[in-house]
Design a protein that fits this description.
heterodimer; A: mainly alpha; MetI-like fold; B: mainly alpha; two-stranded antiparallel sheet; 2 strands; 75% helix
């Protein structure tokens, strides 16, 4: 190999490596571009909410005057809706996950259910709204009540709960089940006493993340007819403390309503509402991450 | 008990060797668990049932040909016309813009996370990127309308206050995590021996990435892409807030346009009587939306199943 050729080869290698460096930075930029966007969103929303996010805002019912309006009804509505959704979706979702993981008949039916759950997870949320409108609001005659909303939300987040609970159950080592069965425990005793306690933090994490999706959902509740001007709370002093037949509103609906108005004041109120919503989501996600970390520390199997 | 015969394994019945009472108890629990799992099937039946029922009612008054191929959508005016193409066109425009944003960015992010990033960087960036997917869509819609559109209007004078461009861009950013995490999974599934072989032949990292890893992971990337389209088509709040309500058939993203989802949301917000023909239109449009996203999801799953077979 003469000298000119060696030089040429070295030049090309260098060129290829330089191209690689450029590409690496391009890829890095692409990775953080979304985060940059997120930071912009948070800063901009915070700036717009300053001066509007105060005690009066948190404790007032909606009003046509921007200075007097507040998110009390929406805030309580969101909490009650999520609590009801959790009560409906959690037991059903976990039971379904147990069936799919612990009763492995591998029959056509189980496989069909599994494929069906995967498909349901991809159905647009507004279609769930149409389902809720057709079945719960009209057929079952629940009207535009918070119960109809919670049932709709439950169906929406069931696939997420089932899939994450399945993963948590699958992570429990089979040796644990075998040991329990060998000691004479029945299948259900094994599940109840061994598998579920072990999988519980994982199941809880998945459920909280699914519920945080429910808190942020707007479209299906628009379809089933959540209102925006609600000057009362769906709660009462006597048991059962919650009036499930009551009309309701939630934070995202209230934010949407304020955003749709042309006046700048209402836009700022929407920003304040968004901050409240994001703080709730942050709280829920922190709990989920905390549980996940605890889980990874505890599982020594 | 029909249900029980489905839930009890035929061979391994050793755990059912207790008393009769206990056997019934176990069977009852299995049946209950099965019913919970079956709710997902009932949900699907419910969705399809409601949509078909109302769509058939709708199609009694409007011909299916007019609905699918008509180019004028004025269900709330006299005389009402029910050509769904303007809504489909708007959905196409916003979804296309969203994919133009999210496909390259999502893929590059996946490449960075899978091939370049150190473990530490990855453990920070990946969850941070996931936050994007957790932000409620109404928040994105608000940001699109009050920040992105005014910003873009400084550079594009023809841009209307409500337009398809902003909505598409913001949907694109929202689905970056979806595209990137699924593509990254596909790239991680490429065996290291392939990379090592390419390095052994003298390839640089870029050449290994673009000529070996990406082609080997292509079906996973395609699946992610198709799922991304499905998500963009079904997105409601961003378009309902930022894209406007014009139902004229046109493809200029600088103009207001109403997608299928935004139409459903708008009619639901109004106070049309629930028995009216206008109200039935949202189910017909919902049916179309469901079919499109369902088809995309199925295609995505098929593509994904194919790539899984290769490396296992």
């Amino acid at each position: 190999m003469n000298e000119i050729e060696t030089y040429e080869v070295q030049r090309r290698v260098k060129q290829r490596q330089q191209l690689g460096q450029i590409f690496k930075w391009l890829a890095f930029t692409a990775t953080i571009i979304g985060l940059f966007f997120l930071a912009l969103l948070l800063i901009d929303t915070w700036n717009k909410s300053v001066g509007w996010l105060d005690f009066q805002f948190l404790t007032s019912y909606p009003s046509r005057r921007p200075q007097e309006t507040g998110i009390l009804a929406a805030f309580v509505g969101s909490i009650v809706l999520v609590a009801l959704t959790a009560m409906i979706a959690f037991p059903i979702g976990v039971s379904a996950a147990i069936y799919l993981e612990e009763y492995p008949t591998q029959g056509t039916l189980t496989r069909f259910i599994q494929a069906n759950i995967a498909n349901l997870a991809g159905v647009p949320s507004i279609v769930y709204g149409l389902l809720g409108l057709g079945i719960f609001v009209r057929q079952m005659g629940l009207g535009r009540s918070i119960l109809a909303g919670a049932l709709t939300m439950s169906l929406l987040i069931l696939p997420i709960i089932i899939i994450s609970a399945q993963e948590a159950i699958r992570a429990v080592p089979p040796s644990l089940r075998q040991a329990s069965l060998a000691l004479g425990a029945t299948r259900w005793q094994t599940i109840w006493n061994q598998v579920l306690p072990m999988a519980f933090p994982g199941i809880l994490t998945g459920t909280i993340l699914a519920l945080s999706r429910a808190i942020g959902e707007t479209a299906p509740l628009i379809t089933i007819g959540a209102l925006t001007f609600i000057a009362f709370l769906p709660v009462s002093a006597e048991p059962p403390f919650v009036d499930v037949g009551s009309a309701f509103t939630v934070l995202p609906i209230q934010i949407f309503n304020w955003t749709s108005r042309p006046q700048a004041e209402f836009r700022n109120l929407a920003a304040a509402g968004i901050i409240v919503l994001l703080v709730i989501l942050l709280g829920m996600n922190s709990i989920a991450i905390f549980l996940r970390n605890r889980l990874s520390k505890r599982s020594t199997y | 008990m029909a249900v029980n015969s489905l839930t009890t394994p035929q061979k391994k019945s050793i755990e059912f060797s207790g008393s009769t009472a206990r056997r019934y108890y176990e069977g009852a629990i299995a049946a209950f668990l099965f019913l919970c799992a079956a709710i997902s099937i009932l949900t699907t039946i419910g969705i399809i049932g409601v949509l078909i029922f109302e769509t058939v009612e709708f199609l009694r008054q409007v011909s299916i040909f007019e609905f699918l191929f008509g180019t004028v959508w004025t269900p709330l005016f006299e005389p009402p016309q029910f050509g769904v193409l303007p809504l489909v066109g708007a959905t196409l425009v916003t979804s296309l813009i969203a994919m133009v944003v999210s496909l390259p960015i999502g893929m590059l992010a996946a490449i960075y996370l899978s091939e370049y990033a150190s473990r530490r960087t990855r453990s920070i960036l990946k969850p941070a990127l996931e936050i994007l997917a957790g932000v409620p869509t109404v928040v994105y819609g608000y940001f699109a309308l009050t920040f992105v559109t005014p910003l873009l209007r400084d550079y594009i004078p023809d841009l209307k206050v409500f337009n398809g461009l902003t909505a598409g861009l913001v949907i694109g950013i929202m689905i970056i995590p979806l595209v990137s995490s699924l593509s990254e999974d596909a790239m991680n599934a490429v065996p290291n021996s392939l990379r090592e072989a390419a390095y052994g032949l003298g390839s640089t990292k870029l050449e290994v990435t673009l000529r070996v890893v990406v082609p080997a992971a292509l079906s996973g990337i395609v699946a992610a892409f198709i799922l991304g389209i499905s998500r963009a088509v079904g997105e409601t709040m961003i378009v309902a807030i930022a894209a406007g309500q014009s139902t004229i058939l046109q493809f200029n993203p600088l103009n207001p346009m109403e997608t299928m989802t935004a139409f459903i949301a708008r009619v639901s917000l109004g106070d049309n009587p629930q028995t009216s023909l206008e109200f039935k239109t949202i189910f017909a449009v919902g049916m179309l939306l469901f079919l499109v996203t369902f088809l995309l999801n199925i295609i995505s799953q098929r593509v994904l199943a194919k790539y899984r077979e290769v490396y296992q």
